Please model this.
Amino acid sequence: MMVVHSSRRRVSARAAISYVYLLVSGLSSRHYTCSSFLLTYSKSAHHTSIRFGHRHIHQGHQRYSTKPLSSTKLLEDTSHNQIDASNKWRFVLANNVEDHQDQTTAEKDATIRNILVCGDGDLSYSAEIASELDTLGIELYATVLEDEATHNKVYKYSSLNAKIINAFSKHNALFGVDATTLSTYFGGSDNTTTFDRIQFNFPHWRGKANNRYNRQLINKFLRSAATVLSPRGEIHMALCDGQGGCSSTTLQEWKGSWQASMFAAEHGLLLASVSPYEPQYNLSSHRGVDRPFNLGKKPKMHVFAKPDGHIHVPRDIQLCCRHELHIVVPEDEDDDGSSDTICSMDQILAGDAVEMIIQGIVPKGVRVEVPARQILEIREAEGSLQKVAVFLIVYCSEKYPVTRSQADSWRELAEVEVEKFVPLRENRRGRTVSHPFPYPSLHPEIKYRTTGER
Model:
């Protein structure tokens, strides 16, 4: 007789069967922890009981416990669970396309063909998803940095989780894989393996919290992942609340984050989606040792992809650069708009014409905004007063990555184009654009600079 109890509602019957198989096929230990399960195995001459018991996960000073479900609840409605699983393994960014008419049904519903999991602690996450992926025919490459002997020594359930993964013919648990040099393992001029999804959950360097080292880590990872990403592929990176920085509303908050979207842009990637993420597996790796870690209140999954002209980045996670444009206002402002010029001085001063001119010189997918302007009277060095219109120009990563070097080249072009219509203040030309910053901080910073209030 066999009784199976589960601490989770979303465990498939196939997952339960795979764990049972591993236990009865020769594993000798009486207590096993795999993913979110606590397995207790007892055997007598007439009775075999396998209990997926209460789950306890320590996170910092918090303790979570879930009650077991009956075996009937575990096994019911299997077809519904399979539908949910297939949705989870589709291309996430199919829903971020601005014009869905450009997509075929197959593109909207396409399931990924493989997934590469990087830095997977004690391999708990990969062991958790292995059965689901096998059911859908999705290949799994589960990787960790340590060699196998070191990993087995550090993590109590390393060997068990590796056996669960390798029990499926399309899955592989790989040791000694550095997530910052993936092309070394999967690249090659003639035979490069590319992935539809590359996932790194809660990356962290091995020491204490240090923004500099963690930025270096995710920068190198994103650069590396971009080299083995399929054309439509996605990079999924789970981060604790505030680490990504894309929702920062002040520059101070942004500077205290890991600035993930900025590094992604440097490697030709767009941060295209951010959503809440609730891990459903054993959080086992804290600074390279076998113990849980605190995720904070709102961990988030960040999804990056190569721009294809269709993926549309929501405004609240767009990355921007800005600069000022100083236009000299002629002493004689009379302009009835009847001349052969493309735009009148009134249109220039209103900002609409400036925005239109600059929008015409940036790549398709970059949105230009002119969110602020001022008319100032400035006393020049020789003592004369000069009226100057100051415009704030902002470049936003709507469908195309924005980097500082690219934005500065657009600034140079903008100055050349605008000067064809109006003179620019000479001593304000050629000033480099700002460092990249998240769009949610734009208007709060404008308010702070104009009123001194946050």
